[in-house]
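fyi for ur records
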Amino acid sequence: MKMLWCWRCQQEILMLETAEAALVRQAHLGGMAVVEAEAKRRGRALIPMQLEGSARFRQPMLEMYRLLTGFVETNPNAVLHHEVDQYGPPCP
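which gave:
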């Protein structure tokens, strides 16, 4: 993870490195089983968030983001653009 300025959020935020972003995508496709396996691998307890509306459909992705960053994000679109590889090199 790397702290970078997000122009959409207008603040510095933890951005996912390539391998971390891949875990988020795996969770999106594979469901909560992927998140539970990663939490177990890291020796962490997983207490699922209580989400409503459209966020419930992307809960595995949001849970994996929370597991990796410690940040509770409920907007799936935010998770999708918080990836280091989507940004260029820092300004000089």
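Strands lie at 2-6, 11-15. thats all i got for now
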